[in-house]
Amino acid sequence: MLISNMETVPDRAIIKQLGLVQGSTVRAKHLGRDIMAGFKNIVGGELVGYTELMSEARDEATQRMIKQAQSVGANAVLNVRFATSSVAQGAAELFAYGTAVVLADGSINE
Q1: What per-residue confidence (pLDDT) applies to 75?
Q2: d(CA 7, CA 104)
Q3: Which of 4, 38, 68, 71 has the CA that lies 20 to 30 A from 46?
Q4: Using CA atoms, how far apart are residues 59 and 28, in angstroms rounded to an integer?
Q5: Distance between the two ends of the chain, CA-based, in angstroms?
Q6: Into which CATH architecture does domain 2-103 fall?
């Protein structure tokens, strides 16, 4: 499955557009991560625990988007975007979405 933030793929024709596909996950902060983040706020620097949490959330949302794309017969998802929103105190949703398409097998220049 090809995943791209571009609207087209160079040298590949879009045979069929299958519509919007999406995936999301809601993640809550972990008490241990909160404590470590509190210490980091004092001295500065990357909040590694939160970086890992967001990376895991991005991966999960992307996999759910891919699964939905496969279920409609797509071989690619184009114009992929990510969004986040606060759902509750200490919990956030990460949302991945894009356009499911069927791309031609070979280059359009062949």
Answers
A1: 97
A2: 15
A3: 4
A4: 16
A5: 22
A6: 2-Layer Sandwich (3.30)
The domain ranges of the chain are 2-103
Q: What pLDDT does residue 95 have? A: 97
- Strand positions, DSSP E, the chain: 2-3, 14-28, 76-88, 91-103
What digits encode the pLDDT tens for the residues 80-101?
999 999 888 778 899 999 999 9
pTM of the model: 0.82
CA neighbor of 35 nearest in space, from 56, 52, 51, 49: 49
Measured in degrees and rounded to the nearest 5, phi and psi for residue 98 equal -170, -175
Whether the Cβ atoms of residue 57 and residue 94 lie closer than 8 Å to each other: yes
Q: How far, CA to CA in Å, does 32 sit from each of 24, 36, 37, 86?
A: 24, 6, 9, 20
pLDDT at 110 over 80: no
Structure tokens at 57: 């959330």
